[in-house]
Design goal:
By secondary structure, the protein is mainly alpha-helical. The protein has a single domain (3-87), classed as ACP-like (Non-ribosomal Peptide Synthetase Peptidyl Carrier Protein, Chain A, Orthogonal Bundle). Helix content is 50%, strand content 0%. It contains 3 helices and no strands. Helix 1 (3-13) packs across helix 3 (69-87). It is globular, with a radius of gyration of 13 Å.
């Protein structure tokens, strides 16, 4: 499962977005299209951290990373890459 597909699953299973996964597009806005409120954003952050073993800093928990489904997936991919790079001995 890709990171994007996993983020969609989190939105449906944990944040309770009522749009079918196959209709959710990367460019869909979390607030305006999917209807997330402040609690939904926090739940998305927490579930992404738990599912992917990452930590989303306060600086990363910002509109430029949490505006669309695709932006969240891109952030998660960057943080996974950073974590794996840090864990690999030089």
């Amino acid at each position: 499962m890709s990171v994007l597909e996993a983020v969609k699953a989190i939105l449906i299973d944990d944040v309770f977005v009522e749009i079918p996964a196959e209709e959710i597009q990367p460019q869909d806005g979390l607030r305006d299209v999917l209807g997330l409120d402040s609690v939904g954003f926090v739940e998305l952050r927490v579930q992404c951290e738990a599912r992917f073993g990452i930590e989303i800093s306060e600086a990363d928990f910002a509109p430029e990373n949490f505006g669309t489904v695709g932006q969240v997936a891109d952030l998660v991919e960057r943080l996974i890459t950073t974590r794996l790079s840090a864990a690999t001995p030089a």
